[in-house]
Amino acid sequence: MASPKIILYTNRGCPWAHRAHIILKELGLEYEEVTIDLSVPREPWYLEVNPRGLVPSLSYNGNIITESGIVAQFLADAHPSHLLPASGPAENALYRARLSFFVDAFFSKVIPHFFTSLRSTSDADRDAAVELLVAGIVKEVEPLLADTEGKGPFFGGSDKLTLAEVLSGSFLLRILGLSKPEYGLVSAKLPALLEQQAPRFKRWAEATIAHESVNYIWDEKAVAERMRARFAAQNVSVQDECLTAFNEFRLSKGKTKYIIYKISDNKKDVVVDAVGHDQDYEVFREQLAASKDSQGRPAPRYAVYDVEYDLGGGEGKRSKIIFISWVPSDTPTLWSMIYASTREVLKNALNLSASIHADDKSDIEWKTVLFEASGGKAGK
């Protein structure tokens, strides 16, 4: 039987996409990996692959499969292995039902408290979230691991990975890894609480995250930094001055050409950085690209620019305000993620649709901006 042609559309920092990496690795399947940048709006070509714009998506001999749980289930069924028995006879069906119940209990009774911890802004709140997380494990998950005693370390006493570990492994990496004190994301009390109250779960989780198929793409420090940025961005608010300046900009009838916005150094507010009146687009482009942080390093910014153009052919002059997200390629990861997470907040507050994400000056040449503002009728 010929090997299937598999293309995985993924982002290794996403725990849901990570599931697909685990099962493909464990099954020993070869595949082409296409990375999807989740920090910017999805490219039109990817929305044709997956209209929801999510990862993972799997192309299997040209057939598109989406949603991580469905992708994993499909691969487990299409390539029978130790991960999951066939659905029949009844004994196998019962095992599959128990595995599904176990995974559901983990994600419905435990994971919500993990996300609460990530959103917490104080040690007390993180401690409270972890206490609820452990309580959920003790009540809902620990009893389901009772039959692992004296057997293999994985679900049901298996000595090899099962679909349960495939579906939960990427989250176990985050729960245990991000509880280290240096990250300040999950209470450092977690390991001791698990040892005291849920020892079977702790042994199962540690065995799972130690498995090569689970951890081979894991970058703990990078994930921790992205998590900090993502949840810090949730506390960023758009100041009234931003909206006031934008309304005045719209009413100026072209006299004001652009506004440049920035996120304050305390990572809490979007504020106005500059307002410009020069009609020469290159003046704006140079000013945006020259933006610096408080230490004189290249810095990200947002901007709005009033693009005026003439379509010719009797269609007359047009004007369109375009939103620009400027994040230089050498921006520190934390700031890059905060700007990526806050972009839509500001863009929606200004009620703008046309936009460009740029990390290099070549991305915001006049012809590119004109093309986007005109809906492809002018420019490129």
TrEMBL record:
GO terms assigned for molecular function: actin binding; transferase activity
Domain GST N-terminal: 4-83
Coiled coil (residue ranges): none
Domain ADF-H: 233-374
Residue stretches making up the GST C-terminal domain: 88-231
Domain of life: Eukaryota
Gene3D superfamilies: 1.20.1050.10, Glutaredoxin, Severin
Membership in a protein family: Belongs to the actin-binding proteins ADF family.
Name recorded for this polypeptide: Cofilin
Organism name: Penicillium brasilianum
